[in-house]
């Protein structure tokens, strides 16, 4: 059996699966993407959107529930909205994403329009974070730290608005 790279998505009638070549399609847009370097490793599904984190291309793909529309954001680097081995993400009800930026040792906030909003401030330093889970009930995030050989739970609190 021959396997192709892509993403299997259930059709709208849920009777069959379709293979989406989202990496190949995205590589047509920005010529700098190289499909052979793609390494899709982390998934998140929220509000009928599928988020696919690609460690190889240092980006995130966002697909609608039918897989008929997709967007991509991110690139390699260390500035806001750039990643080095993104390793997971969680999404809140407003569409704001918290992306694990593993080799930059940080968590980035990205709004639903894919704009960099800021960095998540944590009291225990991150050491090559490699996964994230959102506990909506307790308003906490749980982050695994590869180099720190630990899993840390952080309580989410709203930052005070400096303009008030």
Q: Round the Cα radius of gyration to an integer and report it.
A: 17 Å
Shape: globular
Number of helices: 1
| Largest sheet composition | 4 strands, antiparallel
Distance between the termini: 62 Å
| String of helices and strands | EEHEEEEEEEEEEE
Which structural class best describes the helix and strand composition?
mainly beta
Helix content: under 10%
Rounded average pLDDT: 82
Strand order of the largest sheet: 3-4-5-6
The count of strands amounts to: 13
- Low-confidence parts lasting 5 or more residues at pLDDT below 50? 1-5, 26-31
Portion of residues in beta strands equals 35-45%
Notes on the protein architecture:
By secondary structure, this protein is mainly β. The N and C termini lie far apart (about 60 Å). The strands form four sheets. Strands 3-4-5-6 form a four-stranded antiparallel beta sheet, with no helix packed on it. The chain has a four-stranded antiparallel beta sheet with strand order 7-8-9-10, with no helix packed on it. It has a three-stranded antiparallel beta sheet with strand order 11-12-13, with no helix packed on it. The chain has one helix at about 20-30; strands at about 5-10, 15-20, 40-45, 50-55, 60-65, 70-75, 85-90, 95-100, 105-110, 115-120, 130-135, 140-145, 150-155. Mean pLDDT is about 80; it is low at about 1-5 and about 25-30. The protein has one helix and 13 strands. The longest helix is centred in the first third of the chain and has 7 residues, at about 20-30.
């Amino acid at each position: 059996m021959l396997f192709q790279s892509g993403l299997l998505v259930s059709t709208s009638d849920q009777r069959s699966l379709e293979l989406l070549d989202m990496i190949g399609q995205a590589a047509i847009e920005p010529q700098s993407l190289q499909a052979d370097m793609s390494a899709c490793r982390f998934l998140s599904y929220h509000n009928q959107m599928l988020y696919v984190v690609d460690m190889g291309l240092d980006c995130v793909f966002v697909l609608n529930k039918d897989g008929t529309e997709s967007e991509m954001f991110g690139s390699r680097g260390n500035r806001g909205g750039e990643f080095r081995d993104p390793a997971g993400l969680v999404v809140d009800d407003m569409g704001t994403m918290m992306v694990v930026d593993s080799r930059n040792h940080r968590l980035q906030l990205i709004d639903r329009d894919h704009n960099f909003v800021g960095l998540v401030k944590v009291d225990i330093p991150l050491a090559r974070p490699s996964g994230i889970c959102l506990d909506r009930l307790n308003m906490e995030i749980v982050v695994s730290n590869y180099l720190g050989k630990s899993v840390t739970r952080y309580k989410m609190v709203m930052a005070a608005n400096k303009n008030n």
